[in-house]
């Protein structure tokens, strides 16, 4: 059982809340964890909104990369990140598989087109790191292409840094049990 809104309206003190929990057989530890989580989440969401305003005012550029296994929570995390942001100054980029034309171009070109403009944040639901992890396993790139990527990726990111584009990277993983 969970706390109901009526319970929370009746309780005036922590002691009363604990009494209600005991009376209705509500496990309080899990509830307190959830309350702490939601309070911290509100603070972090406010900070993210402040960051977005700052980026917009200073004409900064920020790319936030979400990488990881399928079903590891990338999409859900992006959804929570963006839910309070101003949609005018952020985008979500989730590129599909490369077209035949893109396959003949420099690998990073398709990502360059999606990088943030001044004053903008871009959330990448997967990124150029596909070439490092997913593509070799799935047979979508050759060993030569993979090796070339491994040399070029640090150089590419250094160029982004030198051009004052900031990159934040998240790697999501789940076990088979999860």
Question: Explain this structure to me?
Answer:
This protein is an alpha/beta fold. It has two domains: 1-58, no CATH class; 60-178, Rossmann fold, CATH 3.40.50.300. It is built from eight helices and four strands; from the N terminus they run H-H-H-E-H-E-H-H-E-H-H-E. Strands 2-3-1-4 form a four-stranded parallel β-sheet, with helices on both faces. The longest helix has 31 residues, at 28-58.
Question: Could you provide a short overview of the structure?
Answer:
The protein is α/β, with parallel strands linked by helices and 178 residues long.
Give me the side-by-side strand order of the main sheet.
2-3-1-4
Largest sheet: 4 strands, parallel
Count of separate DSSP helical elements: 8
Return Rg in Å: 22 Å
Note the overall shape.
elongated
Q: Into which percent range does the helicity of residues fall? A: 40-55%
How many strand units? 4
Q: Predict the CATH topology of the largest domain.
A: Rossmann fold
Number of domains: 2
Percentage of residues in DSSP E strands: 5-15%
- The CA-CA distance between the termini, in Å, is 24 Å
Q: Structural class of the helix and strand makeup? A: alpha/beta
State the order of secondary-structure elements, H for helix, E for strand. Answer: HHHEHEHHEHHE
CATH architecture of the largest domain: 3-Layer(aba) Sandwich
Low-confidence stretches: none
Mean pLDDT score = 91
**Any idea of the CATH class of the largest domain?**
Alpha Beta
CATH superfamily of the largest domain: P-loop containing nucleotide triphosphate hydrolases
